[in-house]
Write a structure and sequence with these properties.
It contains 12 helices and 11 strands. With 340 residues, the protein is of the alpha/beta class. The strands form 2 sheets. The chain has an 8-stranded mixed sheet with strand order 1-8-7-6-5-2-3-4, with helices on both faces. The protein has a 3-stranded antiparallel sheet with strand order 9-11-10, with helices on one face.
Length: 340
């Protein structure tokens, strides 16, 4: 560590000399090019996806405004919206993602002008918005002048051969604000995200950001740029997808041994959303699992309104397959204990 800083003092890199938001044009261009090389997007670099969502909600809404969300949805988005003074209102979804007709009804009922959505590997359910619902969603946004906050948090973990394009890649009238993070594909400590928008809203995001902290760590930006432009980047993503798929398969195979327990939606690469076993409250199960040395997440907090039923979320990303098998076995023991 000391040697590193000594070398920076003797021959400091540009990231220590010019800590400005405009420094890494190449990083911003990379994020923009991932959306659509044919269309210009104004990209702002943010210290992670959570910070980007917080910035967007503060920039778009006034205190008391409604923000529509899928239900369930990412708990961090609910927290960020409420912290900005907004009121999250749920919109139903199914195995194929958002129910667009229900969104339109919610817009007409509430007058909302902001909709937060995770169209790829929805957190917590894992659902991906089908191709047949994307065009109607974009048409709805134009019809009602609705701003769509697209949280594309697992873009790098989707198979490029079969992946659905981001909503922002086909947004001729600038209704989509796109958030893409490198945290899940690089490292938990890589707090770098690209926040892409177009038109007047892009300027509003820049002004809001400048009122906070001027710029993201330039050293972090330079590190991120070195990673995503390295020759091994694509190979790393292939290996990461394969490793996560193996762990997810282990989780699903192990959980299938538990009676009355199947995923409600085809899961994404990191987690599984399940109905709590019949007759067992999710919070009670979470506490029983902890006593067995297993951490699970109860589902009520993922709903912006009342939770319809009892659910839990299991994650397979952080531990190898043998530990996943052991964890599910212990979870089964906790369930058996509660069932008596």
């Amino acid at each position: 560590c000391c040697v590193f800083f000594f070398l920076m003092i003797r021959r400091p890199p540009r990231s220590t000399l010019f800590p400005y938001t405009t420094l890494f044009r190449s990083l911003r261009d990379w994020f923009a090019g991932q959306l659509s090389p044919q269309r210009e997007h104004n990209v702002l670099i943010s210290p992670g996806g959570q910070a980007a969502l917080s910035l967007v909600f503060r920039a778009l809404g006034l205190e008391g405004d409604v923000v529509l969300t899928e239900s369930p949805t990412y708990v961090g988005a609910i927290v960020a919206a409420r912290a900005a003074g907004l009121v999250p209102v749920p919109v139903p979804m199914d195995r194929d993602g958002l129910l667009v007709d229900q969104l339109e009804a919610a817009v007409e009922r509430t007058g909302a002008r902001i909709f937060y959505v995770q169209p790829r590997f929805h957190n917590p359910t894992g659902a991906t918005l089908t191709a047949g619902r994307r065009a109607p969603l974009m048409a709805l946004a134009i019809r009602h002048n609705l701003m769509i906050v697209e949280d594309d948090w697992l873009s790098d973990l989707d198979d490029p051969k079969t992946a659905q394009p981001a909503l922002a890649s086909n947004d001729p009238e600038g209704h989509v604000i796109h958030v893409r993070s490198l945290t899940k594909s690089v490292a938990p400590g890589m707090r770098i995200a690209g926040l892409a928008a177009s038109g007047p809203i892009a300027q509003r995001l820049h002004q809001t950001r400048n009122a906070e902290d001027f710029f993201v760590s330039a050293i972090m930006q330079e590190t991120a740029l070195n990673v995503i432009t390295s020759p091994g980047w694509k190979r790393h993503l292939r290996d990461l997808r394969a490793s996560l798929a193996e762990r997810q398969s282990t989780l699903l195979d192990s959980a299938s041994e538990i009676r009355d327990w199947e995923p409600e939606v085809r899961p994404g690469p990191l987690h599984v959303w399940l109905s709590s076993p019949q007759g067992i409250d999710a919070d009670t199960l979470r506490e029983a699992a902890l006593r067995q040395g297993v951490a699970i997440v109860a589902g009520a907090q993922w709903h912006p309104g009342d939770a319809p039923g009892s659910h839990i979320r299991l994650s397979s990303a952080a531990v190898p397959s043998p530990q996943i098998e052991e964890g599910v076995a212990r979870l089964g023991q906790a369930i058996d204990t509660l069932r008596g």
